[in-house]
Design goal:
This protein is mainly β. It contains two helices and 14 strands, in the order E-E-E-E-H-E-E-E-E-E-E-E-E-E-E-H. InterPro entries: Stress/Tellurium_Resist (IPR051324), TerD (IPR003325).
Length: about 200
């Protein structure tokens, strides 16, 4: 397990020898809130349990002036410069571990990109009070075993349909990961371009 971050905390993405990380993986995950069992025969057969939650993880790339330059999401699985790659859409949120992952080749990120913001949106308008255990984690993919570097677990729920989870920002010659956890509303990544810029 990596360092557990609280909302607003950050961590420089450097290795033990002081060099900057080069290949990182952003894993985002969530679970549906357990629904209470209903009474009666049909309730015991069909009611309760874990509902399916279809959320979408995306990345938004900004310049120093907070202008959005590019987005990476389920309909555009790679950034224009090829440095960021989405591994595909998870339609249910079922299973343990990461539900969706976004790979980032940090040295290849276009030099005008200052921030990469990771967001989650609900295309079906399911709200975050139906979601639990939402998290965002950074994994160092440049070393064998891909150790987890940092993790941010969302502690708040609410009626929002989107969440600005975390960001990567340039820091000198390297990058820094910061936990955000800011509720927002949107069906698609485009709906969160403005709200995400506001928290940079």
């Amino acid at each position: 397990m990596g360092l557990s971050l609280q909302k607003g905390q950050g961590l420089s993405l450097t290795k033990q020898d002081g060099s900057s990380m080069t290949q990182v993986r952003m894993g985002l995950g969530w679970d549906a809130v357990q629904q209470p069992k209903k009474g009666g025969l049909f309730g015991s057969l069909f009611g309760g349990g874990e509902a399916e939650i279809d959320l979408d993880a995306s990345a938004i790339l900004y310049n120093a002036g907070r202008q959005a330059l590019d987005t990476v999401f389920f309909n555009q699985l790679a950034s224009k410069d090829g440095s960021i790659r989405h591994t595909g859409d998870n339609l249910t949120g079922a299973g343990e571990g990461d539900d969706e992952t976004i790979m980032v080749n940090l040295p290849s990120v276009n030099g005008v990109v200052e921030h990469i913001v990771f967001v989650i949106t609900s295309y079906s308008q399911q709200t975050f009070d139906r979601v639990q255990n939402a998290f965002c984690r950074v994994v160092d993919d440049s070393v064998p075993g891909s150790p987890e570097v940092a993790r941010y677990t969302l502690t708040e729920q609410g009626p929002s349909t989107g969440m600005i989870m975390a960001k990567l920002s340039r820091e000198g010659a390297g990058w820094k990961f910061t936990a955000i956890g800011q509720p927002a509303n949107g069906r698609t990544v485009g709906d969160l371009v403005g709200p995400a810029a506001a928290v940079l």
